[in-house]
Amino acid sequence: MSKFDFLLQQLTDYQNLQSHQDQTLASKLLQVQIWQKARMQHTHAYFFAIPEHQPMAHYFLNRLYGADDFNELARQIDRFIRNSHTVEKIIPKSALQTGDAGVELAILAIQLDEQVAKYLLENYPIDTPLNDEMMRRAYLAVDQYAPRLHQMELLELLGTKLDKYVRSTMVKTAFKLSKGIAYRYEANTIYDFIDDGFKAMAPLGSAQDFIATFTTKEKQIIDAVHSGHPTPFQL
């Protein structure tokens, strides 16, 4: 079994999302993603505003949660993992392992948000603006307690990988040297996705510490939603 098989399955799941074929659902999914980003910005406003935290906050909100270029990223990854002997010549294996964790996390976020979007379309008029109460009800109705906790676990795994590889001078040097060939082989979106994670890590003492602070608060919100708190997103 290829070490890329799991990632290939992730991409297959992404390509099979109903929102790719249903424009109404795609529009509602986008609304959910916008709400998610705004909620996270509000919840973590003070933490995200610390200067050295801002690059990682930007990475979270613009790479791991509804990245605008994710379709192109998926296309490039699909092309290269079907030729795995080529991709490892272009981008160092250690960097790819970090990228794998980020891709898995990004796809899971889209899958979960699509489930929420489906519920909203089925239970509210299509032009109803999203609000906290609608989202609270949606979270409960689709019962995402375990998947949302898994999402936090994947974030923590990403932090471990960032700390492990980004602190290595050898890995950083090899990754930087691979940029030219990555762009030449049209793996630029893959390269940039990984590079953004590495750059976000640079100002931090530890990615694990940053992510642990973030996930601790997010887990509190997940628990509050499923324990019946009336305003869990305002914690």
Automatic annotation (TrEMBL):
Q: Provide the DUF8198 domain boundaries.
A: 18-232
Provide an example Pfam family for this protein. Answer: DUF8198
Task: Specify the superkingdom.
Answer: Bacteria
Listed NCBIfam families? FFLEE_fam (NF047641)
Question: Mind telling me what this protein is named?
Answer: DUF8198 domain-containing protein
User: What organism does this protein naturally occur in?
Assistant: Acinetobacter sedimenti
